[in-house]
Design a protein that fits this description.
Structural class: alpha+beta
CATH superfamily of the largest domain: Bira Bifunctional Protein, Domain 2
Number of strands: 18
CATH architecture of the largest domain: 2-Layer Sandwich
Helix content: 25-40%
Strand order of the largest sheet: 1-11-12-13-16-10-9-4
Distance between the termini: 49 Å
Strand content: 15-25%
Largest sheet: 8 strands, mixed
Radius of gyration: 27 Å
Length: 421
RNA sequence: GGAGGGGUGGCAGAGUGGCCGAAUGCGCCGGUCUUGAAAACCGGAGUGCCGCAAGGUACCGUGGGUUCGAAUCCCACCCCCUCCGCCA
């Protein structure tokens, strides 16, 4: 959530920043509630202080004395007033908090203003797309043996659409990708964690999935738990309600997890094959950093993700996401899109973002500056990488005339072979 | 799942209705002493909210309730431990 103190001081600045995003939010109502809240708190605390003082005087009177009895009558009235003022203060505080949770993060000044994804800026490319043009290139889902190795019909039978089985050497290739990504992350200084795949409401609220995006997550209504849409949720929440030492920062971690997304209402032709699934595997990088370093760290994070595509020899482009396409909790976001030569499309395989203090404030993750008061940290995360679309690109870009697919060199030792198909 | 026990400050651990934001010990920070260190002694130290400040207020697992007054009594929930059952 945003810093209410900054909002009080610079309403128009925040309003301007948020206007660039596509989310609806009512700053005037928030500010009005903030004012009401402060008044209500002051009133309740004043009355409460009077009650406490009177109570202390009363404790010294002999119980059952006339004086005590008279005082008691007075105190009952005061107690009623305190109760009333406190419940009023509590109520307005809850309203204030719930509105505050609907205010998105303010985009960084370097984020281009735009309406939607067509306004995203391509800031870099790597690799030669034209070199991959060949007549026999096909979409991965049109490779003749595709369904033998990535079995969608069986997935439909067992679960539903978007939950394929990976079979045989394809399962092994997926495992090789996971292993490769984790090895690279570890070499880059990210400590590996194996995280819960199910989280509670507080965790989902802290990272910004709730209260607004229930449609994205599978949930267990009985237990009030959610299947994670990304490792970002459990991993970021690792330090929820904790205070880190300044010298510990930055903390860098990586996690492999399956990810579960309902993708309600977004099923269509663009999403055949591996392009969009309800369950997919991903390695995620997460950083907790000093506020002054977060934009610098974002560049490093992006480079770490990019290096994976380079090592896999997959051409990609880097997009700086515009204000209209950027997510609710994000201050700045880069997407990496890999070239899929069969579909002749760019596929998003990574999103690297700086959330500044937005998630950390919701999650109450702080650090203690040298001898000072705790301050909110900044959090970042980036996919490194989402596996099905990387796999799609490998299948399409590396398809040979003989119908087999060449496995990228760096994966061969982990995969245990040179070809698949 | 059944039966019992328990959740108090960084940790350990007192506290069963007002004198408790909370004893004591350990650990931590600063100082005295010392050539230096240890020991000893002295002092300090939680987090949030309201307030320009002085200060006020909240927080003893969480949320309700009883009471003039709750860490302390009542209810619900969460979590941990022990035993039994079941299971990888």
């Amino acid at each position: 959530m945003i810093d209410i103190k900054i909002l009080r001081e610079d309403l128009e600045g925040i309003r301007e920043g948020l206007a660039k995003k596509k989310f609806e939010c009512d700053l005037d109502r928030l500010l009005e509630l903030d004012k009401q809240r402060r008044e209500a708190v002051a009133l309740a605390e004043e009355k409460r202080a009077a009650q406490k003082a009177a109570n202390q005087a009363m404790a010294k009177l002999p119980k059952g004395s006339d004086e005590f009895q008279a005082k008691l009558k007075e105190m009952k009235v005061l107690a009623g007033e305190v109760k009333e003022l406190e419940s009023a203060s509590k109520e307005v505080n809850e309203q204030w908090k719930s509105v505050l949770l609907t205010i998105p993060n303010v985009p960084h000044e370097s984020v281009p203003v735009g309406k939607n994804e067509t306004d995203n800026q391509q800031i870099d490319t790597w690799g030669d797309v034209d070199a991959l043009v060949s007549e026999h290139a096909v979409a991965h889902y049109d490779i003749p043996w595709f369904e033998q190795k990535i079995d969608f019909p069986r997935g439909v039978k067992v679960t539903g659409a978007g939950f394929p089985f990976y079979v045989g050497d394809m399962a092994r290739l997926v495992r090789a990708l996971i292993q490769f990504f984790l090895n690279e992350a570890a070499a880059g200084g990210y400590e590996e964690v194996l995280a819960p795949l199910v989280v509670n409401e507080a965790s989902a609220t802290a990272t910004g999935q709730l209260p607004d995006k229930e449609g994205q997550m599978y949930s267990d209504q009985n237990e009030n738990l959610y299947l994670i849409p990304t490792a970002e949720v459990p991993v970021t929440n690792f330090f929820r309600d904790e205070i880190l030492e300044e010298k510990e920062l930055p903390v860098n971690r990586c996690a492999y997890t399956p990810c579960f997304r309902r993708e309600a209402g977004s099923w269509g032709k663009e999403v055949r094959g591996l392009n969009r699934l309800h369950q997919f595997d991903k390695v995620e990088l997460v950083k907790w950093v000093h506020p002054e370093k977060s934009y610098e760290e974002l560049e490093g994070l992006r480079k770490d993700a990019e290096s994976l595509l380079q090592k896999l020899e997959l051409p990609y482009r880097v997009l700086l996401i515009c204000s209209g396409d950027i997510g609710f909790p994000h201050a700045k976001q880069y997407d990496l899109e890999v070239w899929a030569g069969g579909q002749k499309r760019w596929l998003e395989v990574s999103s690297c973002s700086n959330f500044t203090d937005f998630q950390a404030r919701r999650a109450n993750i702080r650090f203690r500056p040298q001898g000072g008061k705790p301050e909110v940290v900044h959090t970042l995360n980036g996919s490194a990488l989402a596996i099905p679309r990387v796999l799609a690109a490998i299948l399409e870009n590396n398809l040979q005339e003989d119908g087999r697919v060449r496995v990228p060199k760096v994966l061969q030792p982990l995969y245990g072979g040179e070809f698949i198909g």
